[in-house]
Amino acid sequence: MCGIIGISSHKSVSGNIISSLKKLEYRGYDSAGLATLYNGEINEVKSKGRVDELEQNFNLKDLKGNVGIGHVRWATHGIPNSVNAHPHSSENVSIVHNGIIENSTILKKFLINKGHKFKSQTDTEVIVHLITENLKELELEGAITKTLKQLHGSFALGIVFKDLPDLIVGARRGSPLAVGYGPNENYLGSDSYALKSMTNKISYLEDGEFCIIKKDHVSFFNDEGKKINKKILELSSNEKVYDKGDFKHFMAKEIEEQPITLKTGIKEYVDSINEDINIINFPWNINDIKSITLVGCGTAYHSCLMAKYWFEELTSLDVNIDIASEFRYRKNRFKSENLYIFVSQSGETADTYAALDLCKKNNMKTCAVVNVIESSIARDANFVLPIHCGPEIGVASTKAFLGQILILYILSLKLGYLKKDIKTEDYKKKIKELKNLPKLVEQTLLIDNEIQAISSTFNEAKGSMFLGRGFSFPIALEGALKLKELSYVHAEGYPAGEMKHGPLALIEEGMPVVVLAPRDNYYKKTISNMQEVIARGARVLLITNKSKDEVFSENVWEKIEVENTNDDLLPFLLTIPLQKLAYYSALKMGYDIDKPRNLAKSVTVE
Ligand code: M6R
């Protein structure tokens, strides 16, 4: 999704802007650009496609200037082309923008009546002209304060001015924005990750605030244009270089890293000696929590659904789950005895953040299960449970999913134990079995050959289905999401018991259907549902767990057996073949696996 970088320095900035934009590439984007101030002019270059193409299309070494802004764009208003790419500039002002301006149509009319000419189809261009207009009668701080008040929607902005050649203005509402401090230069970035290679000293803008960045000084202002002070935070500087190693794609590497993700999570939260779970500094009395609401988007939502099954199984808590984009606009009955848990890999997903913000404004108990601990969601929640899976670069979430469900499982076990909903011996037994999970995932990862052979059937089909019941249902949804986002093949996830109520009509001769039927409480029921789809011509790929008992697999097209463990932990193992199925299908089609079309890693617009 869109990313911003800005540098005000004592030396030329275009090289560092380009390398920072490359750091933002993992977010997913469709065009890129930058603008520098030099010799009393705004020099703007931009093009469709990747940052590499921008470098090929322009001689960026000749792009002089000690102050500049750069952007990678993920199209919202207007197709991805070089005209709609950012920066957008008037004669005096140049802007990069993340977010959406909801009243752009009204503002555009107003500005056209004032004589402003528009070049692009974007909502961003109105900001350029609005500031230009306001600067006619106000000095810088006043013009910015007035402009921000006129904008509806969400934004993170980086702005440079032809007549103010030593500074960059940054402003935030809704979309995150960070300021970095370096030697003889200061920075603006849409996330601290983009700035990490240059500095570990960071301040974050809050909603409504703006800043003026010069090479040797940064000032901050509130939404009334009054100067405010900001804390400088020091980020951990132990960032290791994260590359693909010997893997063809980040996704392949991240799938294989899952045993490490689990080992790290278990090490962090499980006290192996006492067979107990440590959730240090949990800020509430357990008796004050009667119910839980879990909120997320996409894969993170599937983690919430998975957790619902565990919380209901292991605790007496009432459990609700919600998709963040729905939660934030519904009439929620906020309850003080409810714990709101926000699940997100990036910690920057706009809808999830807005849902958290809503809870905060209603003084609710909030907890974040996140990967990026410097993220907005992590910073703003009352309590954070990091998943510690390291950077996840592939747009398709894999190790973060296993990391999220691990933490949620651990939390459900601990709360169940504290609430005396599970017996001590069961609690200890489950912890013991959990410690063995990384090993079982490692063994399950060795299924490449079987999966590779099957995967092309899914590409060749018109559509496919993923079925599961109970603990396997969220995994069926996740498997379908992985296949559709990577292979661009229609894939539906369904509770197997729901087929007769409509979806069975879709089954036709040869349609590939994945049935998740581990030997748990639902096994026999799922096998019956499987026979119903086989009877209608489906080619069933049955995924179950290893067992002494022969599986009832008559007329099954293919069968894959994952390792064996207790019912709670089987979802972890069932996920692995589905991730690999999606990976190999996309690989056969020659698709851009780490950056699937139209998608972004960090979804910072709603
Ligand atoms: O960063 P988040 O976990 O909040 O992201 C949520 C979704 O955008 C994300 O899980 C998305 O669905 C993935 N592309 C799925 O693989």
Beta-strand segment tally: 27
Present as ligands are: 5-amino-5-deoxy-1-O-phosphono-D-mannitol
The CATH homologous superfamily of the largest domain is called: Aminohydrolase, N-terminal nucleophile (Ntn) domain
Q: Percent of residues in beta strands?
A: 15-25%
Query: What's the end-to-end separation, in Å?
Result: 11 Å
Characterize the structure shown:
The chain is α/β, with parallel strands linked by helices. The protein has 3 domains: about 240 residues, Glutamine Phosphoribosylpyrophosphate, subunit 1, domain 1 (4-Layer Sandwich); about 190 residues, 3-Layer(aba) Sandwich (Rossmann fold); about 150 residues, 3-Layer(aba) Sandwich (Rossmann fold), CATH 3.40.50.10490. It is built from 19 helices and 27 strands. It has an 8-stranded antiparallel β-sheet with strand order 3-2-4-1-10-9-11-15. The protein has a 7-stranded antiparallel β-sheet with strand order 5-6-7-8-12-13-14. Strands 19-18-20-21-22 form a 5-stranded parallel β-sheet, with helices on both faces. Helix 8 runs antiparallel to helix 15, helix 9 runs parallel beside helix 13 and helix 17 runs parallel beside helix 19. The longest helix has 20 residues. The N and C termini lie close together (about 10 Å). The site of 5-amino-5-deoxy-1-O-phosphono-D-mannitol has 17 residues, from helix 9 and helix 17.
